Amino acid sequence: MKISTKGRYSLRLMLDIAMHGKDKNVSIRDAAKRQNISTKYLEQIVSMLVRVGYLKSIRGAQGGYRLAKSPAEYTVGDILRISEGSLAPVSCLEDEVNQCGRHSLCPTIKFWEGLYKTVNEYVDNVTLEDLVNEAVKENESFDFCI
Q1: What is the pLDDT of residue 95?
Q2: Closest Cα to residue 75, out of 120, 117, 121, 124?
Q3: How far is CA 136 from the centre of its chain?
Q4: CA 146, CA 139: separation in Å to the nearest integer?
Q5: CB-based contacts of 72: which residues, under 8 Å, 6+ apart?
Q6: How far apart are CA 31 and CA 38, in angstroms?
Q7: Residues whose CB is less than 8 angstroms from the CB of residue 98 and which lie 6 or more positions away in sequence, other chains included
Q8: SS3 of 127, please?
């Protein structure tokens, strides 16, 4: 399983807005500059995140984007599934009920189910707030006073 640039950039954008949009709206141009991502590509990602209700769009001179909920209410899994779709490592696990004709005979299905469960548990237990806190902690560790 490999997370695409769309998934990685969606997570980076949500984190950027969580960190810089506490008391103001975040413009795509500013986020693109900070994240070193094309403005055009971010526009596509933003429209997807607005459409599903993860971001609010504010028009006007002081317009931009804000999170629709608090950072603690978004999991990394939520964000990745919006941009990537299923996180299943094999296609036979993408549906609620396994459609594979070999499911009952498959000697590797338990492995794939275990991997899928582990991935989902991990991404669903890390919130956007956790990432914000980690980023703040990392930045503070580089704050040297001489």
Answers
A1: 82
A2: 124
A3: 18
A4: 17
A5: 127, 128, 129
A6: 10
A7: 92, 109
A8: strand
Rounded CA-CA distance 32/107 in Å is: 46
Separation between Cα atoms, residue 38 and residue 10, nearest integer Å = 13
Q: Which residues are bridge partners to 57 per DSSP?
A: 65
Those residues with Cβ within 8 angstroms of residue 127's Cβ, 6 or more apart along the chain or in another chain: 71, 72, 73, 74, 75, 76
Backbone conformation region of residue 85, classed left if phi is above 0, alpha if psi is from -120 to 50, else beta: left
Calpha distance 5→52 (Å, rounded): 19
pLDDT tens for the chain, 146 residues long, are 789 999 999 999 999 999 998 888 999 999 999 999 999 999 999 999 999 999 999 888 888 999 999 999 999 999 999 999 999 998 888 888 877 888 788 999 999 999 999 999 999 999 999 999 998 888 765 554 44
End-to-end CA distance of the chain: 46
pLDDT recorded at residue 69: 96
In this prediction the pTM is: 0.87
